[in-house]
Amino acid sequence: MDTMLHDLGQLLLRAVPTFLLVFALDFYLKYMFFKPLEKVLQQRYDATEGARKLAAEALELAAAKTAQYEAALRAARSEVYQAQEQAHRQLAEHQAGELLATRQRTEQIVRDAQRQLAEDAEVLKPELAAGSDALANQIADSILRGRAA
Known about the structure:
Number of strands: 0
Distance between the termini: 191 Å
Shape: rod-shaped
Number of helices: 1
Helix content: over 70%
Largest sheet: none
Order of helices and strands: H
Radius of gyration: 60 Å
């Protein structure tokens, strides 16, 4: 058993330089390769995330400006529609006023024409009565002469 322990001790003693070499290589690779690589990867990640965040902020800003533009456009359209509606209302009121004034003038002209016609009829009634008597006498004479002949 002593030999076996002695051989095991010799084996471990021979493995110590390999263990130290592997440990030194691990230490060397950590600080000379993996730490700088990790640092570069972290910088790359930060740059990528930074660009993504900037892009997201730009999209949010663009969306806000778009919403603001659309709100301003809706407000402008609303103002234009209100102005058009006001203009239509004013035009309709003006046309209604003009129509009423024209209707009143026309009714006055018709009343004046009816009054003038009634006056002319009153003036002409005696003349027509006299003329109709004379015409009736002529007709009667002509009928009577036609029988006599």
